[in-house]
Design a protein that fits this description.
Helix content: under 10%
Shape: elongated
Number of strands: 4
Number of helices: 0
Protein name: Urease accessory protein UreD
Largest sheet: 2 strands, antiparallel
Strand order of the largest sheet: 1-2
Organism: Pseudomonas amygdali pv. mori
Distance between the termini: 43 Å
């Protein structure tokens, strides 16, 4: 009854939710993000080889 109990930490599921939208100009952008530890969402990039209006992002951990 008074025995020592070891409590283990609760393991939360790691997720990253990213939503893209299209601006009136035709360019895509990150319109919503829910990114928690251990992730980090970098800025929107425009790379030379990307199709016109396409956004590129880096998701880092």
């Amino acid at each position: 009854m008074n025995a020592h109990q070891t409590l283990l930490p609760v393991q939360a599921k790691t997720t990253a939710h990213i939503a893209f939208s299209k601006a009136p100009s035709g360019a895509s952008y990150v319109s919503r993000q829910e990114v928690g530890y251990p992730f980090h969402l970098g800025r929107t990039l425009k790379l030379p080889q990307d199709p016109p209006g396409m956004a590129a992002i880096y998701l880092q951990s």
